[in-house]
Amino acid sequence: MLSAKSLFQEIIDNDESFRLFCSIAAGGESQGGWENARIAALVPQTERELAPKIARHGADEDKHGRIFNALMKKRGLRPVPVPPDTDYTMLLERHGIGLAHEKLTADRPLTVRDIVTYLAHSRVTEQRASEQMELLRKHFADHPDIGRAVRMISQDEDNHLAYCHEELLRFARAGHGRAIQRTLRECALAEIRIYRDVSLAVMAHMGRILRWSRPRSLMLAAGIHAVYAWERLAGWRRMVSLRMPERRNALGGPATTAAEFA
């Protein structure tokens, strides 16, 4: 029977598919780490109190990249180049989600509007990350090889999502509510389309590695399209709502390290 658990189990049991999965994940997390570090360095003076939280966000993402690389190293595997059609982070930037790299490399302070845009985009992408890790935690929290990594990354992603909610609500109270809602909606509708395309690309690459039959590949593609149809109709709304999280000041402390995975 085809299920999320059986599908991912098949991927992690095969060295080549596991290496591709970890390489894709590590590349995206490392890129997110760099972006957050640059944003933290360029926060406008009026929002300097936010800089340590953004830096913590970046440190977490960078840590996740090191964890995925460590999981490969543990199995004697080396990273592989990330196929462009599976590069979620690059495709998000290409479609205007996140701050342009020209801004992040210019060494000029960002504006408050830039920070609001960054938080709104992060709120959408962290929703996706939190849900994906929750699914992995549900099925693989006790896995002997990846369980510890899954639990740690899932906890971090939940913290990132809570932080985005709390900070966006603060900016909404400061008069940015309309800009936040407009940006959230635009970002959510773009993200679900990119996520569909990346999911189809990843499954195509995995299918070639694992030699899936054409009927199985078509079934998986149909499932991805069905998820997109639901998200396009109504599911995107979960990405744009804001509520005060139970975890307050979720990024207020120091980042945990990946030393145990080295």
How do the strands and helices of this protein lay out in sequence?
Layout lengths: L3 H10 L1 H27 L9 H24 L13 H7 L6 H4 L7 H29 L6 H64 L3 H20 L29
Helix pairs in contact: 2-3, 2-7, 3-7, 6-7, 7-8
Structure description:
The protein has helices at about 5-15, 15-40, 50-75, 90-95, 100-105, 110-140, 145-210, 215-235. It is mainly alpha-helical and about 260 residues long. Helix 2 (about 15-40) runs antiparallel to helix 3 (about 50-75), helix 2 crosses helix 7 and helix 7 (about 145-210) packs across helix 8 (about 215-235). The longest helix has about 60 residues, at about 145-210. The protein starts with a helix and ends in a 29-residue tail after the last helix.
Quick take:
The protein has 262 residues and is mainly α.
